[in-house]
Amino acid sequence: MLFYGRLLARLASGFALLAAAALAGAQGFPSRTVKITMPHSSGAAPSIFMRLIAEKLSAVWGRQVVVENRPGASGFIAIEAMKSAARDGHELLAVANSHMTINPSLYRKLPYDPEKDFVPVAMVLYASFFVTVASNGPYQSVPAIIAAAKANPGGVIYSSSYVGSPSHLGAAELEYLTGTKMVHVPYKDQSQMYIGIANGDIHWAFSTIGSALPLIKAGRIKVIAIAARQRIASAPDVPTVEEAGGPAGFEIDSWIGLVAPRGTPMEVVRKINADVNRLMSDPEVLERMKLFGFEPAPMSPEEMAAVIRADTAKNAATVRRTGATAE
Description:
Layout: H1 2-27, E1 34-38, H2 45-61, E2 65-69, H3 76-83, E3 91-96, H4 97-106, H5 114-117, E4 118-127, E5 130-134, H6 142-151, E6 157-160, H7 166-178, E7 183-186, H8 190-199, E8 204-207, H9 209-217, E9 221-226, E10 255-261, H10 266-279, H11 283-292, E11 294-296, H12 301-322
Parallel strand pairs: 1-2, 1-3, 6-7, 6-8
Antiparallel strand pairs: 3-10, 4-10, 4-11, 5-8, 5-9
Helix pairs in contact: 1-10, 2-11, 4-12, 7-12
């Protein structure tokens, strides 16, 4: 009994030391510059917004937080670079739901495993998608786009920021629901995509307000519907796709969240999560969200993991139903 008593005491002491070390690690974070890598172009709304978050976190942590944009290859360039990043919270990856929940079903060979390679850290925002067209283009309504696609299969061209993006899968779903066939032209740089719409090279796209805002303000492109079940407060005059004459209940879900390489200490993950969540009530952050048509989405790492699992199952069903593919 004496032996077991001593063993239990040593185990308890060991656990206490581990807990103290973990707490000290979280309290000592960050100890150097924190880098947030993004698979988006620098001019895209998520990148612009993330730089504000980085600025706010820099003030909270007393350490520089930088955003590095590495767009291209449907996010693979940025994501693969993070697989070998430091597992201490100082290197984070800002991903869209497409990278974590669409790509696993869309690509036969994915160069990363969303669950095995990364741990959810903090949800940053939800974004609404709008049907965007040229202000002087041939299609000024959702029914006009659908009618043209039915009359001339392959004659209507839509774009997205990359293969497998929410806007790409959403357009594939619209094709499926309306019995149409359109041509998908992905763009590496979102700003160029909107220029393509304004110039008439592209007929339409699902886009966020923030990324399209410069050309919307310039009067060259406009939004004609929102891919949501109901209108949103930041754009109350924009009808839903259903209200505009499209499929009933049509919506596109999109979010941006922070993940870290698997193996990052949970104490550090929870600290980052708590600090990001607190920013979701910051007046400047909320005002920028409203401008971009974003919504705050504070939640725990466990809740974010549950969202990822649910979205993965839902998007896998959509990919199977629509036959969407990535070449």
